[in-house]
Design goal:
- 2 copies of one chain form a homodimer.
- Chain A is mostly helical and 186 residues long.
- Helix content of chain A is 75%, strand content 3%.
- In chain A, strands 1-2 form a two-stranded antiparallel ribbon.
- In chain A, helix 2 runs antiparallel to helix 3, helix 2 packs antiparallel against helix 5 and helix 3 packs antiparallel against helix 4.
Chain lengths: 186, 186
């Protein structure tokens, strides 16, 4: 009886409730990284592979739209690619955290990189969003005309590709907060 | 002699080296918040007060440039204003952290808001940057012409106003990392 109680106490010490919570949060961290990696990969591919050539042409206007016509879209593809690569590389560390939830130093390293990557992804996403908005609505003050009337399928594609990127940004915000909460409980 | 040693040990326990480091980092946190608040305030004011009317006009073109002609610039001003307001409100908490460096829960709250505000500020800054780039260089594929040849003083002003915003973004990244490091050392 006494020995059993001792064993239970020992088990509790090795795996207290806080440790269980940390393990559970590490699993959420792992899942969020996979979701964010898929989101950024999808966005980068959707943006990079889009192009539309109109079936008519004139002497003065170019009727072919591609993502690298606009520097903001190129930046968007690069940012999503870099963040996707980082997320894939961080997954092994995330799995390691599920096994060893008490580690702190590696979580700090992850927070630093997560924050930098979040800034990069947000910058890419919103620069592209600003141009997408302009493509849809144009701007009369600057005499910039909406190009979406001509390039409707191109515009649909680039608008859709923003979703994955902003979803991944949200996932990265959650990742930073989760890491901070886990670190505070050691 | 013995009493002196005891007192020294007691003082060390009340104020160990880690506590000193935390206090020092809390001061850096405080300084960064002030720098970021000034940066965002300056950016918001610089962008919001800029307008240029050209001394000539035709029937077809509008020759007056203002920040709210472009929705991205309006978003930039709002984002900078909101983040500046948040930073000013967070300063009392930051001062409180200098006095009580061992607090954790309030630091977690600050990390959550700092991360959200960092995302908002980065989004505003890079959306504006995308449009500023377009204003400087135009885009031949989309038939968007550079407007900076006409509105040179307007363009100088909006380009300059990005600096404060990106400086503040950098300060917020550092704030998140500092908070995470301080939390890990309790």
């Amino acid at each position: 009886m006494k020995a059993g109680q001792l064993e239970a106490a020992e088990a509790l010490e090795l795996n207290p409730p806080a440790q269980g919570l940390k393990k559970w949060m590490s699993m959420v961290d792992f899942a969020l990284r996979i979701v964010a990696a898929i989101g950024t990969l999808g966005s980068a591919i959707a943006m990079a592979t889009t192009n539309e050539t109109l079936p008519f042409f004139t002497q003065f206007l170019q009727f072919r739209a591609q993502y690298n016509d606009l520097p903001s879209f190129t930046f968007f593809v690069i940012a999503n690619g870099v963040v996707c690569g980082y997320l894939v590389l961080s997954i092994p560390l995330s799995i390691f955290h599920i096994k060893r939830p008490e580690l702190t130093i590696t979580r700090i390293i992850l927070i630093i990189f997560d924050t930098a990557m979040m800034a990069l992804l947000t910058a890419g996403g919103s620069a592209a969003a600003a141009i997408v908005y302009l493509a849809h609505n144009g701007n009369s003050s600057a005499n910039w005309f909406a190009i979406c009337q001509q390039f409707s399928s191109f515009c649909e594609r680039i608008t859709g590709s923003l979703i994955g990127s902003f979803g991944a940004t949200l996932a990265l915000i959650l990742l930073i907060i989760i890491s901070a909460v886990v670190i505070s409980r050691h």
